[in-house]
Specification:
Shape: elongated
Distance between the termini: 56 Å
Structural class: alpha+beta
Number of domains: 3
CATH class of the largest domain: Alpha Beta
Number of helices: 10
CATH topology of the largest domain: Alpha-D-Glucose-1,6-Bisphosphate, Chain A, domain 4
Largest sheet: 8 strands, mixed
CATH superfamily of the largest domain: START domain
Strand content: 25-35%
Number of strands: 13
CATH architecture of the largest domain: 2-Layer Sandwich
């Protein structure tokens, strides 16, 4: 294969290099210049881990040819030592715990630098849109967004002369040519929308109660069920009373209810890990089919993690005096606690909460004048682990 000589400046140092025309910039940086801080992930221009700056503008080095950078300046993670924006971002990423394994971090910092320079007035929604091309499998993005927002706020309150020069394009930042508030060329911001049909509103449903829709949520899904020795009508009536339902859910506290909207908190404790998510939820009902969804979101003040989720329950009559309630929980965690969201231990913990909830519901319906159901208690992680192991062994031998 014929080689081509290119003149390229990398991290402030100019050099003449011979490269094959088909060599990608990421491979050139890593293999030929030994700058291994540039990480290659998907190698299809999707994940953003390989993002570097070419003349101050973020590019995907895995799909950019090295020969296309002839005569241009490339900056990798190793070349930010004197950069005033990156100095602030590094500190902010540390303070807000914006990295875990670190694989996406070089590319994430390059994109973050571009946001700080190009969009000084960006709000959190805009920052999230701009980061859509950088995938992180660890952090849940909360810390990353918080770090970038903290830098933007600080610069708004305390302008930095060096950074203002970079924003104006007087120190080689060509990203300003795209306009101070315009998104990168070829990229259009979007707002996700969910389209759903609303079920027919039937007589007897209060006007203040939303009606169940067929929209489906994305996230980790855990399901369970429990039986109650009562009629389906009695159980359904109970399950639509949020005050009574909250009293039976371990760790739940209902602070205020206006129509179908409630505010409150859910506390969870799993061994040494504990969190209390405070937020809002909306109840949606389908009385004809005895189905309901409680859609909510909240934030833990300590870890700054966010949780959104749907609790769907379906009341099904077994006979005149026995009812089965199917519960399906779909949830998404963002922030430091996101790393626990899909673990088997946590999902088993959720199933145990459903089981405890069922026992509490049965107890309250049968003895309405009894004491309030107990709040969340610590779960023994060893007992949960043994429970999971035993269940898998039963499945294994059952399959044989």
């Amino acid at each position: 294969m014929s080689m081509k000589t290119i003149q390229i400046q990398v991290n402030g140092q100019s050099s003449s290099q011979q490269v094959a025309p088909r060599t990608h910039l990421g491979d050139f940086l890593r293999d030929q210049l030994q700058l291994t801080g540039t990480h290659l992930g998907c190698e299809h221009g999707v994940c953003g881990a390989c993002t570097v700056l070419v003349d101050g503008v973020p590019v995907r080095s895995c799909i950019t040819y090295a020969v296309a950078c002839d005569g241009q300046a490339v900056t990798t993670i190793e070349g930010y030592a004197q950069d005033p924006v990156m100095r602030r971002l590094r500190e902010a990423f540390t303070v807000h715990h914006a990295l875990q394994c670190g694989y996406c971090t070089p590319g994430m910092l390059a994109s973050a630098r571009d946001i700080v320079l190009r969009l000084p007035e960006a709000d959190e929604e805009r920052v999230r849109i701009e980061l859509a091309g950088n995938i992180c499998r660890c952090t849940g993005y909360m810390g990353i967004v918080a770090a970038i927002m903290s830098v933007l706020r600080d610069l708004s309150q305390n302008p930095d002369a060096e950074i203002e020069l970079l924003r104006s394009g007087k120190q080689g930042y060509r990203g300003s040519e795209r306009g101070a508030s315009a998104p990168a060329e070829g990229f259009e911001g979007f707002r996700a929308q969910v389209t759903s049909r609303t079920s027919e509103v039937r007589q007897g449903v209060p006007e203040t109660v939303a009606v169940l829709t067929d929209g489906k949520s994305m996230g980790t899904k855990v399901d369970g069920s429990f039986e109650v020795p009562c009629s389906a009508d009695d159980v359904w009536l109970f399950m639509t009373d949020l005050h009574r339902v909250a009293a039976c859910l371990p760790g739940a506290q209902l602070d205020e209810m206006t129509g179908a909207e409630v505010t409150g908190s859910v506390a969870v404790k799993f061994g040494p890990m504990s969190a209390s998510f405070k937020g809002r939820a909306m109840l949606e009902l389908d009385p004809q089919n005895r189905k309901a969804i409680l859609r909510g979101s909240g934030q833990d003040a300590l870890s700054q993690s966010r949780a959104t989720g749907d609790v769907l329950y379906h009341v099904q009559s077994l006979d005149q005096s026995h009812t089965k309630v199917f519960v399906e929980l779909t949830y998404v965690l963002q922030g430091p606690l996101a790393q626990f969201s899909r673990s088997g231990l946590v999902q088993e913990f959720v199933r145990r909460m459903i089981s405890d909830f069922g026992r509490n519901v049965a107890g309250v319906i049968q003895d309405p004048n009894g004491q309030r159901a107990p709040s969340a208690a610590a779960i023994n992680p060893l007992a949960v682990f043994i429970s999971i192991l035993w269940a898998r062994l039963k499945r294994l031998f059952g399959a044989k």
